[in-house]
Hints:
Blueprint: E1 2-4, E2 7-9, H1 15-19, H2 27-37, H3 50-63, H4 67-84, H5 87-94, H6 108-111
Antiparallel strand pairs: 1-2
Helix pairs in contact: 2-3, 4-5
Amino acid sequence: MARIAGVNIPTQKRxxxxxxxxxxxxxxxxxxxxxKVGIPAERRxxxxxxxxxxxxxxxxxxxxxxEGDLRRQTAINIKRxxxxxxxxxxxxxxxxxxxxxxxxxxxxxxKGKAVAIAGKKQATR
Length: 125
């Protein structure tokens, strides 16, 4: 099993698909990396030599922000918004959707599980 940028890459998948398991690398960047290193698109991870894996690892280390560094950078950006007290920062602080989605219904991913309000359904006529 190949280990690149601290992530175990699945061995049976094609290299381009397997590289997307690394945070910060999508299909476009994965195909770009394979092109730089000179690996054909249909090649599978278990068919790679140690030298090719090392070249992929070097290419990612030199030119891309991935995994821990990327997560840290994102966390710092969010913390900066929260410290500024701008609208987006306040939404992050309250745990509400940041990008203008409605919250009257939906938004359960950000708000968490719905909590019942005691005595809400007692309006009987």
